[in-house]
Amino acid sequence: MILVTGGTGLVGAHLLLHLIENGAKVRAIYRNEKGIQKTKSLFQHYHKVSLFDAVEWVQGDILDIPSLEHAFVNITQVYHCAAFISFDPKDENKLRKNNIEGTANVVNFCLAKGINKLCYVSSTAALGDLAANETIITEESEWNPEKYHNDYAISKYGAEMEIWRGQQEGLKVIIVNPGVIIGPGFEDQGSGQLFQKIANGLRFYTNGKTAFVTVNDVVRIMITLMESSICNERFILIGQNIVFKDIFNTIADTLKVKRPDIEAKPYMLKINLFIHWLSSLFSRKTNNFSKDTLIAASNTKEFSNQKIKTALQTSFTDVHQYIKENFQPVN
C-alpha cells in the first residue's frame, strides 16, 4: 500500500487521483474533515468522484508520532507532499517545525518500517545559487550559505537534508523540485491565489520571471520515477521559465477579465512592502507582502529541466495552453 502525506493539497490530491486511476491501493493522512472535502471536490471537478471512496483516510499529522505509527501500517511506498508554505517572517518557527521536523519524522518511520522508496516534493526554492560563471540553475548548483535565502527556502533545504540523511541510512529516495505549480482547485492556496487576485482585478505586473509547471506533469513524473529503478536523485520539474507579465496576461485572457496594465516599478514595490509591514504591526493579519515577495517579483533567474527530460525521455505541457484549456470561466 502507498502512503501520501499532504493528500488534501493541490499536488497530493491530484496524486491520489492518478494513483487510484492506475489501480494502486492508497492511504492518505488528513488533519480535519474540511481538508478531505477539498480533495473530494477535486475528484468531482474531474468527474471522478466515484473513485474518491477508494482512498483510505487516516487522521493524523506529520508532527504527531502516534498518528504516524498508525498511518505506516503495511505501507511499502511513501509520497511526502505535506508542507507548510508562507513568506511571512512571523512564520519562521512554524516553517522549520513543519517542513524540517515533520520530514525528519517521515524519514524515521520510513527507515523503521523498511519502506521500499520515498518521494519527497521539495521546491525550486531549495535549489542552489548561481555561481559567477552560471546562467541557469540546475540540480548541481550549490547552495551558498553566504547568500540570502528566505525562511521557506531554508526550511525546504533543511527538509532535503533529512531526506539525504535517510538515503545515507539505506532508504531509497527521490526528490522533485517543482516550480510554481498550476492546477485547478484549491483557490486559497499557492497559484490558486494568483488566479483569484487576477479575477478580482489585479492591476499591477512586473517583468520578473519564475518557473511554472502543471500539476499533472508533476504527479505523472513522480509516479514514473517511483515505479522506475531510479533512486537517490533529485530532479527539477518545470515546464517553462515565464515572465510574470506574460502569465498574468494569459490568466486574465482566459478568465475574460482585464489584464494587469500597470508595471510595478521597484520603488512602488518597496512602498507597498513598507505599508504591509506597518499594517501587520497593528493587526493580526498575515503579512502576504514581504521582502521575499519583493525579491520574487523582481527575480530573473531561470531553471533547467534537462535532467528529467533526459532521464525519462519526457516532455512538459505548455503552461499557457494548459491554462487556456483548464481555467475557462463557467457560464
Summary tags:
331 residues, alpha/beta, Rossmann fold, 3-stranded mixed beta sheet, 12 helices, 44% helix, globular, NAD-dependent epimerase
Tally of alpha and pi helices? 12
Spatially, the strands of the biggest sheet line up as 3-2-1-4-5-6-10
CATH architecture of the domain at 2-185 and 212-240 and 304-320: 3-Layer(aba) Sandwich
Question: CATH first level of the domain at 2-185 and 212-240 and 304-320: which class?
Answer: Alpha Beta
Question: Would you report the number of β strands?
Answer: 12
- Characterize the main sheet: 7 strands, parallel
Q: Helix and strand string, N-terminal first?
A: EHEHEHEHEHEEHEEHEEHEHHHH
CATH fold-level name of the domain at 2-185 and 212-240 and 304-320: Rossmann fold
Shape descriptor reads globular
SS content category: alpha/beta
The Rg value, from CA coordinates, equals: 20 Å
Approximate strand percentage? 15-25%
* Low-pLDDT segments: 273-285
Superfamily at the CATH H level of the domain at 2-185 and 212-240 and 304-320? NAD(P)-binding Rossmann-like Domain
**Terminal-residue CA separation:** 41 Å
**What's the rounded overall pLDDT mean?**
88
* Percent helix range: 40-55%
Question: What does this 3D model show about the protein?
Answer:
The chain has 331 residues and is α/β, with parallel strands linked by helices. It has a domain at 2-185 and 212-240 and 304-320: NAD(P)-binding Rossmann-like Domain (Rossmann fold, 3-Layer(aba) Sandwich). The chain is 44% helix and 15% strand. It contains twelve helices and twelve strands. The strands form three sheets. The chain has a seven-stranded parallel β-sheet with strand order 3-2-1-4-5-6-10, sandwiched between helices. The longest helix has 22 residues, at 92-113. The protein is globular, with a radius of gyration of 20 Å. The chain starts with a strand and ends in a 5-residue tail after the last helix.
